Amino acid sequence: MFQGSMVAIITPFRDGKIDEKAYGDLIDFHISNGTDGIVPCGTTGESATLSHDEHNRLVRFTVEASAGRVPVIAGTGSNSTDEAIHLTNFAKQCGSDAALLITPYYNKPTQEGLYRHFKQIAEEVDIPIVLYNVPGRTGVNMLPSTIARLAELKNIVAVKEASGSMTQVCEIYSLCGDRIAILSGEDAINFPILAAGGRGMISVTANIVPKQMSDMWDAFSSGDMNRSRAIHYELFDLHQNLFIETNPIPVKTALSMMGRCTEEMRLPLCSMAEGNKEKLRQVLKGHGLI
Questions:
Q1: Contact between residue 41 and residue 47 where contact means Cβ atoms under 8 Å apart
Q2: 23, 115, 132, 173: which one is catalytic?
Q3: Is 21 a catalytic residue?
């Protein structure tokens, strides 16, 4: 379940509401192109501006639309442990295969606080848990030693590592080995993370090129390092340009250019600057995506 190319899927909006038609079409697009898992309600899914009702509806919709064809790893994190438990319980009840839990943001817990936060969730909700470490968004870095402590808990099974540090990835693998699956959360270093012991990625870029991302993983897992590396570098400019403004602004703009959703985002996210939008357009043209 916790390997391969998984998509940190966007949440399409239309006139202020979730566009369920576009969202269902995106799920089918991913499954037909080899995506190994759908991850709704993460950072890329604009979870910060979803109401609780919208969040729960989106998780349930993803489970129903996926219909068992691929695992659903629902984003259920919060900077409140009680709220994270509530969201994770709902994800379990509606049939999610796992939960993705971001480190608490803004309140900047200590490493001991992080450990207790995830330990309490793991003890109260019997569902596989994927830790999510993205210090650039949260203001706190979960250290490899803390991840190693958490890996001792039976239902903490993976970590989405998005610190951008290969040293940290190597430290996690050195401490944990195969006790926890390391998943890349930083598309620009997907291949290096796989080479260092990673088992896949939860990808932003997969939103627009799911087949190529799936092919990269398939080549790697079959032992064809040269092909996997080549695909990684073919996509490298996409990885970079999908982060020229705050995620998910560029990837949602790209999908809009591809005709798969509207460009609509919720404030405080807003449309791309015209210069960056034109740069993104040219990169998409170069890949034959528009």
A1: yes
A2: 132
A3: no
